[in-house]
Amino acid sequence: MNVKFKCNCPFTSALDIVGEKWLLVIVKQMLIEGKETFKEFTEADEAIATNILTAKLKFLEETGIIFKTQRPDNKKTNLYLLTEKGLALTPVLVELAFWGDKNLRDIHPIIVNGEAMEFLRNDKMAFANEIEKKYKEKLTTINYLH
Q1: Residues in Cβ contact with 93 at an 8 Å cutoff, skipping those fewer than 6 apart
Q2: Could you give the 3-state DSSP secondary structure of residue 69?
Q3: Residue 109, CA distances (Å) to 46, 101, 113 in order
């Protein structure tokens, strides 16, 4: 892994990893949308170019945020799953969503709304805990707690 850190500040160092374009989007797709395969990522609304997606998945794997394994029922299909380090980004994603909901609706009024957003607005911590719990249950179900 060849990560260039700008300085020794923990905030700036964290941004050197997760501040790269697309990285938090991919983590969000995995955690909230349940995406696991390369094909699922390419079909997402964000439409990440395949060459960029390949590089970002490799980077996330090298930094220990995700791990790659094979689908138990189809050894030809790779699964990308979050590690504990990746799951630890849940509060960051929740805070970004909360901030976006609260501060961007005036310039982007069609931001998603609904039950999930209402849950997030009312109790960020419970929302984050529920997301993590569901993801861990999924990992346990497919026997891939890493």
Answers
A1: 24, 27, 28, 31, 32
A2: strand
A3: 18, 9, 10
User: H helices then E strands: how many in the chain?
Assistant: 8, 2
Query: 3-class DSSP state for residue 20?
Result: coil
Report residue 117: phi and psi, to 5°: -65, -35
Distance CA 39, CA 34 (A): 12
pLDDT tens digits, residue range 93-115?
999 999 999 999 999 999 999 99
Domains of the chain: 10-141 (1.10.10.10)
Residue 25 tokens read as 């989007």
Provide the pLDDT confidence category of residue 1 given band limits of 50, 70 and 90: low
Render pLDDT for 25-56 as a digit per residue (tens, 0 to 9): 999 999 999 999 999 999 999 989 999 999 99
d(CA 91, CA 48): 24
